[in-house]
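Hi V.,

Quick status before I head out on leave. The structure for the redesign project is tokenized and pasted below; the design run finished overnight.
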């Protein structure tokens, strides 16, 4: 049985879900971004206990099919941006459509309807948040960051960065505060 979980965007979230399921005596087959597969059907009582336990960590069990599909799209975007072997030189629309087994046109339309923004804009915002992280930790220069995030050039990254944040990457780097957004707030 598959359970779909909203706001599950990191390895830490995955560990929280695994821990809470163990605590409730639920045996899982796998736990991935946005979903957990368990061996048996769960009772309404177990589902409610899990819902309450996950809510403490900002996670939410989902039931609505559209909401589940939108969350799966968001998780696919996060994979594209944060998984190096996924992000480099791939076509994001083909990746998302292939991963979710739906036509991209349908996914794009549904995402826009539910989220009020396009998948492409959501991808750009996530890439800029990742760029902020990489700039903040000062491990890579802008050329390397543009390569990591699959930008065609540093200029392309810089232009999108300034459009989204209002400041150039170099100015962002000089700022002392960390103006990054949490992934579940994007």
């Amino acid at each position: 049985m598959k359970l779909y979980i909203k706001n599950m965007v990191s390895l830490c979230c995955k560990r929280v879900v695994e821990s809470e399921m163990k605590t409730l005596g639920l045996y899982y087959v796998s736990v991935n971004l946005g979903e957990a597969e368990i061996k048996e059907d769960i009772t309404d009582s177990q589902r409610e206990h899990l819902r309450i336990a996950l809510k403490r960590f900002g996670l939410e069990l989902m039931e609505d099919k559209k909401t589940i599909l939108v969350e799966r799209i968001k998780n696919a975007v996060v994979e594209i941006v944060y998984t190096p072997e996924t992000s480099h030189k791939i076509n994001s629309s083909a990746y998302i459509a292939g991963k979710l087994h739906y036509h991209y046109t349908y996914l794009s339309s549904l995402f826009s309807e539910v989220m009020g923004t396009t998948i492409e804009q959501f991808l750009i915002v996530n890439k800029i948040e990742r760029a902020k992280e990489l700039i903040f930790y000062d491990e890579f220069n802008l050329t390397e960051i543009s390569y990591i995030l699959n930008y065609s050039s540093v200029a392309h990254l810089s232009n999108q960065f300034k459009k989204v944040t209002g400041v150039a990457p170099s100015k962002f780097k000089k700022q002392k505060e960390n103006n990054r957004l949490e992934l579940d707030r994007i």
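Above is the designed sequence. The domain at 64-186 is CATH 1.10.10.60 (Arc Repressor Mutant, subunit A).

G. will cover questions while I'm gone.

Best,
W.
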